[in-house]
Amino acid sequence: MDDRSFVAGQSFILEAKKYWTSTLYPELKAEYRRRAAKVGGEPDTVEGVRALIEDTTLYRYFAWLERRLQRFKYSGRYGLVPYHRERRDELLAPLAAHGTDPNLDLDPDLEMPRYYNTVDIHQHPGGVWSDDFAGFVYERGARSTTPLIAGDHRDLHQRFTDRITEGQAPKRVLDMGCGFGKSTRPFYESFPDAEIEAIDLSGPCVALGAHDAQQAQASNTRFRQMNSYETDYEDQSFDLVTSTMLIHELPPAEIERTFSEAYRLLESGGRMAHLDFYTLPDAFSQFIHYGHGRRNNEPFMQPWAEMDVTGVLESIGFRNVEIASFAEAEGVDLADSQAWRFPWTVVAAEK
Ligand SMILES: C[S@@+](CC[C@H](N)C(=O)[O-])C[C@H]1O[C@@H](n2cnc3c(N)ncnc32)[C@H](O)[C@@H]1O
After folding, report:
1. What is the pTM of this model?
2. What is the pLDDT of residue 200?
């Protein structure tokens, strides 16, 4: 496949996603409100919302398109996976030099958890870990995860980093579930004097992250293939433990184990802060978001959003738990947004 056809195919998918986000979603919401008005008001349960709109042609089309556009993005003639597979050798060549890189620690024997290797997350065939070029696929795919801010895709991570550090430079940072390093980059760019560790189950992702960090001359950052709930760091190794879009990918028991591991790794007074999808303003948003999780092959969206996070964190020993909505882009408020948006939320606590 030539570059021009691939770019055209992916641009088409992005524009179709924008249509789905900005036109179809508001129409669905309006239809839902009309139906709710006829039965005396908006239901306050997901089941109530389901009963009102699940069988409408509009919802069926909305859900069908969401699922198919995502599949089209990764698979088929213009898909990310076949395109990158064809270019595998040239993509991997610059990374080959990292075999002896002290800032990259791969663990080929690391056991992949069942929740991770039995589902093609995001509908990415083979997930973000099984092909050696998977990091490149994920990097390209992440550019259109948030269709309305695509093109400015680093901004969200930088804003999150600024928000949780509030001008105070952390000394030792752990970025859990770092992927290909998009969430780690703002830390090494903003805090060149900090020691930064970035871990992820995916070898191909951490390899790409290490390569990019080396290109950026971030010698303070190490990428390691490691599980967020079974790390080999000593107690109290960090003053900041963070993650971006990791938690909703984990089953509830592994979420609790990850929080407990973060607690063990933090020094007294240290802070844990995650950016994820959690606070949903009403039953309609819940219905749409849980459906998104199913259609995007992210099965733990719902149990995570329903978890009593404050209770879990306090039972581990955390204090000053903060759960706050986080704007997808400056000036965007989820509750007022006409378009479909992720329910970005900061979940933070202190040891
Ligand atoms: C949605 S991605 C987010 C990546 C990155 N933080 C970002 O914001 O671009 C979630 C990442 O979590 C990783 N992951 C899932 N379960 C994990 C676990 N138990 N330990 C470490 N990483 C994990 C996945 O491999 C994936 O790279």
Report:
1. 0.96
2. 98
